[in-house]
Design goal:
- The complex is a heterodimer of chains A (about 150) and B (about 200).
- Chain A has about 150 residues and is mainly alpha-helical.
- Chain A has 5 helices and 2 strands; from the N terminus they run H-H-H-E-E-H-H.
- A two-stranded antiparallel ribbon of chain A has the order 1-2.
- With about 200 residues, chain B is an alpha+beta fold.
- Chain B has 2 domains: about 120 residues, Beta Polymerase, domain 2 (2-Layer Sandwich); about 60 residues, no CATH class.
- Helix content of chain B is about 45%, strand content about 15%.
- In chain B, the strands form 2 sheets. In chain B, strands 1-2-5-4-3 form a 5-stranded mixed β-sheet. In chain B, strands 6-7 form a two-stranded antiparallel sheet.
- Chain B is globular and about 50 Å long.
- Classes of the chains: A mainly alpha (about 150), B alpha+beta (about 200).
Chain lengths: ~150, ~200
């Protein structure tokens, strides 16, 4: 089990927003916590390497904007196991810190989503029917299966 | 043919998996966010271990097969199954593990033909599609971004570590054929929103 509010936990939670490189993650954590959490680079990189070893994050070396001569950056992202671990950590912290409220969803946008899903169902039925008809025609074709 | 085949099948899966623990992703979610296209199956992501998801589905009489992915290849395990009678109208489904961080408080609940469906939030969907990284997945993202330009910055940051996918995505977004498809979707959407009314003729 990782220590609560350890560097590793903080990095895993920062990566939930999306992939990022070391400095980016330090900034992300500082911004999200109103500068209350400021990690030292000397602690961040070993922690990221340790998380990679544990199979919780992946690392990819990328040259920013594909520019020639630019120094490549190592981007980190959560693995499937990392997602689970960060969810668990996040839930523990959320339970300790606040009561979550469900997001009220209403309005025209949701009704449009419902309409689109109905249209999709009709369209998909039509496509499935066509596919089935095509397969039947092919199966009954006189040269079916011959080259 | 049973009406609302995919909607009913997904509602059944969500009920079995439990509220707050599962959301629709894949083609159905792409449709919900505006890109109308046909889809063959239902994809559901769960916020719980696959073994637990399998147990819950079995309790509701839904059989699944566990497909083991090779983790070394960045692949993942998932549950596969089929709802309905065998044949062209059966509904294949995939239950996916939490491959990207999910926040159930952001899931969108939609009432469709008397069935409650839970759809993954849009950033979550984009992240999943980027992780999958197939041509169809990237095309889905391209269409959604062209439909909602405010998503472009989200996608740029989510794909920061995937330069190949980002390059392909940009090519797709610049392709006039994608723009034509988006224009057609917009045209259809406005036509369904504002049904044309015949004008009353004045008697003169």
């Amino acid at each position: 089990m990782r220590a609560l509010l350890s560097t590793k936990t903080a990095l895993l939670l920062a990566l939930r927003e999306g992939p990022g490189f070391g400095l980016d993650l330090i900034r992300r954590l500082a911004t999200r916590t109103g500068n209350r959490v400021r990690l030292a680079q000397a602690r961040v990189y070993p922690a990221l390497r340790a998380l990679q070893k544990e199979g919780l994050v992946t690392a990819a070396s990328v040259r920013p904007g594909g520019r020639r001569g630019a120094r490549s950056r190592t981007y980190y992202d959560l693995t499937a196991r990392g997602v689970l671990a960060s969810t668990e950590d996040g839930e523990i912290l959320a339970r300790l810190g606040r009561i979550r409220t469900a997001r009220a969803v209403e309005g025209a946008a949701v009704r449009r989503m419902a309409d689109r899903l109905l249209q999709m169902d009709e369209l998909s039925d039509l496509a499935a029917g066509l596919r089935a008809a095509m397969l039947r025609t092919r199966a009954h074709a006189p040269n079916h299966g011959r080259k | 043919m049973a009406a609302n085949r995919l909607v009913r099948a997904s509602a059944r899966l969500l009920r079995a998996l439990g509220k707050g623990d599962a959301a629709i992703v894949g083609g159905m979610a792409v449709n919900a966010y505006g890109y109308l296209r046909a889809t063959r199956d239902v994809d559901v992501i769960v916020n719980l271990p696959l073994a637990e998801a399998r147990r819950r589905l079995e309790q509701h009489g839904i059989a699944t097969t566990l497909l083991r992915g090779d983790v070394r290849d960045g692949d993942f395990s998932c549950l596969k199954g089929v709802l309905g009678r065998p044949g062209p109208m059966a509904v294949p489904f995939d239950i996916l593990p939490p491959l990207v961080p999910l926040d159930p408080t952001l899931f969108v609940e939609v009432l469709v033909a008397g069935q409650t469906l839970v759809i993954v939030d849009l950033p979550g969907l984009l992240r999943l599609k980027l992780r999958a990284g197939g041509v169809k997945d990237l095309y889905d993202i391209a269409v959604l971004v062209l439909l909602r330009p405010e998503l472009r910055t989200d996608v740029d940051s989510l794909a920061a570590d995937k330069p190949v996918e980002l390059g392909r995505l940009r090519t797709m977004m610049a392709d006039p054929r994608t723009h034509d498809a988006v224009a057609e979707i917009r045209r259809q959407e406005s036509a369904t929103r504002r049904p044309a009314r015949p004008r009353a003729r004045r008697k003169g």
